[in-house]
Design brief:
302 residues, alpha/beta, 7-stranded parallel beta sheet, two-stranded parallel ribbon
């Protein structure tokens, strides 16, 4: 099976490519879409992986990526805006462009990686943009699987980098004291779910919420990680409203970055009515195992 992947140089994309190269028994060929030639050099090197430089405003480049592909895995998207990229351009317009190209290329199946909380009617701009992206995929006329995810832990993920940085200190200050609930998901488990979806294409559109096996507060996750590193971490609080006010003021000076919208997202409770792990063929990795893997890779990289 031939899989086209957008955002292939993201942390999730690189892990997925490694799974395809080393664990998929030759079942897949990966067409790895990135936006710059410099990003090509960051991809795993393997005969199963063919890189493509794409531009969402250039239909020819998208068609080249999709030629001969059975399935598209759409990973591209942002949480933090910049002067170069907005929720509209990165989460909505890019999805619209690649979905239109999928229709013209007769791709059989789209797998969209979305976020818990995605909702076209949300008052949060990020969640609303992810909801619109889901709607674009769902109404494309192409069979689709949408996977909504929580904080992802694995080598290179933003959530893992922030967690290790906080857990490395003797004391940290967190938004609201870190009392919001998380369900961290091992990025290797997400890759397993994605490849399961590629193999087991369903008719129509399916939306799944996939989370890790251990719900806990952010502060407890910091404590657990610190203890695995051999020390205790003292967690203090900064009021969420204070952080949002400061972010709003900073945004008037320099748009993007840590905004009230982002703060709402990273302090939201990660809750699901039903974990789709069984439906997606995933044996969830215990949280302690995920953290030990993460810390081992962090130590090796230092």
């Amino acid at each position: 099976m031939r899989i086209a992947i957008t955002g292939a140089n993201s942390s999730v994309g690189k892990v997925l490519l490694n799974h395809i190269a080393t664990q998929a028994n030759g079942d897949f060929k990966a067409y790895a879409g990135v936006r710059t030639r410099q990003a090509v050099a960051t991809l795993p090197s393997n005969p199963t992986i063919t890189p493509y430089v794409i531009c969402y405003g250039d239909r020819d480049s998208l068609m080249a990526l999709l030629e001969g592909a059975n399935c598209l895995v759409h990973l591209a998207g942002i949480l933090i805006e910049s002067k170069y990229s907005s929720y509209q351009t990165a989460n909505v317009d890019a999805t619209q462009a690649i979905v239109a190209a999928c229709r013209h290329a007769a791709v059989d199946h789209i797998v969209l990686i979305s976020a818990l909380g995605a909702d076209i009617n949300s008052g949060n701009r990020y969640y609303r943009s992810k909801g619109v992206a889901e709607q674009i995929v769902a109404q494309s006329g192409v069979a689709a699987t949408i996977i909504r995810t929580p904080i992802l832990l694995g080598s290179g993920t933003a959530g893992a980098q922030a967690l290790v940085a906080m857990a490395s200190r003797a004391s940290v200050t967190t938004l609201g004291g870190g009392h919001h609930s998380l369900c961290p998901l091992d990025v290797d488990d997400l890759s397993d779910a994605i490849l399961h979806c590629c193999r087991m294409q369903a008719d129509g559109v399916a939306i799944h919420e996939l989370v890790g096996p251990t719900p806990l507060s952010h502060r407890d996750l910091i404590h657990m990680t610190g203890q695995l590193m051999g020390h205790n971490v003292s967690v203090a609080a900064v009021p969420v409203w204070t952080a949002k006010l400061g972010a709003a003021v900073a945004g008037w000076i320099r748009p993007g970055g840590m905004t009230p919208t982002v703060i709402d997202v990273i302090t939201a409770d990660e809750t699901v009515r039903r974990n789709a792990a069984v439906d997606l063929g995933v044996n969830l990795t215990p949280l302690t195992v995920t953290l030990k893997k993460l810390l081992s890779k962090t130590t090796l990289s230092q």
